[in-house]
Design brief:
6 strands
Length: 134
């Protein structure tokens, strides 16, 4: 596999868009990054995974997956060696990153809605307390 394959597969997922972050190609869903080609010159694609997912990929296929060095890797960010990955492996890994981002986006939207709703109720309740006889 290569960067062209990575791009084609990443953009095949519902809502996926290509963007750029700090001069590197990235792939987003709902405006949030799920994968990048920031390390393509070194032969890697990058996946935004959680630590459990990262551990599973690295344990199952250490010749294909490795944590990104430093703090990013300790947060689940994972390299995929493009030349070593089959299309099925690349598609599965990208789908995992995309799905995680979609799920996080949904949780974030629900949380924002709850906070906004709570704030509106709180204001109404405060108004009732200040003026119990409107």
């Amino acid at each position: 596999m290569n960067a062209k394959d990575f791009r084609r597969i990443a953009l095949s997922f519902e809502g996926a868009e290509e963007g750029s972050h700090m001069g590197a190609v990235d792939f987003r869903v709902g405006g949030r990054i799920f994968a990048t080609l920031a390390s393509v010159k070194q032969g890697y694609g990058n996946l935004m995974l959680n630590l459990e997912q990262q551990k599973g990929f690295v344990e199952d296929m250490p010749e294909v997956f490795l944590p990104i060095a430093g703090g990013w890797g300790r947060m689940g960010m994972t390299h995929i060696r493009l030349a070593e990955a089959s299309e099925d492996v690349l598609e599965g890994a990208l789908r995992t990153a995309w799905k995680l981002r979609v799920e996080k986006n949904a949780k974030g939207s629900a949380k924002k809605w709850r906070v906004a709703t709570k704030g509106k109720r709180g204001n109404a309740e405060s108004a009732k307390t200040r003026n119990p006889h409107p």
